Amino acid sequence: MLGLQELLAELNYDQSPHYRRQENDFEPETVHLFRAARDINRDINVDGKVDGIYVFETSPNDETRILPAQPAVYIASAQTQEASEEIHRSLWNLCYAPFLIVTLPQQIRIYTGFNYSPGAENKGLLESIATTERLQLLKHFSALAIDSKEIWQSLYGKKLNPNQRVDKRLLQNLQQIGALLIKHKLQPKVAHALIGKYVYFSYLRDRDILSDKWLQLQGIDPQDVFTYKATVSSLRTLTEALETRFNGQIFPIDFEAEKSLNDEHVSWVASVFRGDKIEEVPEIVRQYHLPFKAYNFKYIPVETLSTIYEQFIFERKKKGAIYTPEIVADYLLSEMEWTKELQRGMRVLDPACGAPRGAV
User: Fold this and answer.
1) Can you spell out the DSSP letters for 296-360?
2) Do 18 and 143 meet the contact criterion of CB atoms below 8 Å apart?
3) What is the dihedral of CA 162, 163, 165, 166, to 10 degrees?
4) Which one, of 345, 339, 328, 334, lies nearest residue 57 by Cα?
């Protein structure tokens, strides 16, 4: 089967300026793509690595260019199928590129970056190429196919399902947890704040900011916050420690005034986020045993946190707090270029912008 360099040659990536594989290949707006891939390589260790990213232009590639290039295909190599699947999981969490191609010693695996599920071997796997006769399938991901936009009209482009992206799936799962909490007598405002806190904790935990050592210095046993043993008391202790550490609040809960929140509620949420084994979680949440093992908050873009924050604003519809999906913001920016050419430093008036997704 093809090695990494042979694969790049087969796809004609090795001759294209759109294949990026080192930090200085990227514009400032997209250098985070390389840094995230570098982090994945460090985590996967010797069994696999992300080599580079083929990008496509979303606006004219000249002096008037405003929007940065976007990732189309990640290219990686792996020694084992397990390493290949872990790369897929990490890139699904990263939520950037719609496709991933991994070369292994005996096969080439083509994944969608918009779908993944733990325990389902072929979830998100589009093709497994194990014979030279099937190499023709790679033409759909070639430099020419991407540059000409043919990739989006191909069979594989039509299989992309944005609803299975990590941001969509995570929001769906969180809404299910919210429904459970509200059903069991927790006020919606408190339920949403509790869920938001555990999203926040997960970001800090997976990025090693909430290390066991730091928690122990605060007198907190990690199991009392992050497992089915979690309690309101430990949640409050951690919340207050973080508010002191970062000098601010996020998803606030008034622990003194709020009497509807109890240990069961906290235990349910902690159990789901941890992905505890079925026999360990409280019986009431077994039917809500969601696939949180799939998530790695180290790679989920931090912008997703703001989306979740907006999603869980209590009575957000009554208050007009509706976030603009990123794809819509990108579309509006593209349409603006047709009306008036965008220039760096241009001022745009949007009296109801809220979180200005189109400006950042």
Assistant:
1) -TTTS-THHHHHHHHHTSTTHHHHT--PPPHHHHHHHHHHHHHHS---TT-----TT-SS-GGG-
2) yes
3) 160
4) 334
- Helices and strands (DSSP H and E) totals, the chain: 14, 6
The neighbour count for residue 35, using CB atoms within 10 Å, is 11
Distances 231 to 176, 228, 240, 262 between C-alpha atoms, Å: 21, 9, 14, 8
CA distance 157 to 221: 47
Nearest to 204 by CA among 96, 272, 294, 305: 305
Residue 100 structure tokens: 């991933």
**DSSP per-residue string spanning 43-60:** HHGGGEEEEEEEEE-SS-
Distance separating alpha carbons of residues 119 and 85, to the nearest angstrom? 11
**298-345 pLDDT per residue, tens:** 898 877 777 766 666 544 555 555 556 655 665 566 566 666 666 767
3-state secondary structure of 70: strand
**Contact criterion met (CB below 8 Å) for 78 and 47:** yes
Measure Cα distances from 194 to 79, 225, 275 in Å. 41, 12, 17
Q: Which is it for strands 48-56 and 70-78: parallel, antiparallel or unpaired? A: antiparallel
Record the tokens describing residue 121, joined without a space: 């071997």
Question: Which segments in the chain show pLDDT lower than 70?
Answer: 1, 29, 46, 60-66, 119-121, 276-290, 308-342, 344, 351-360
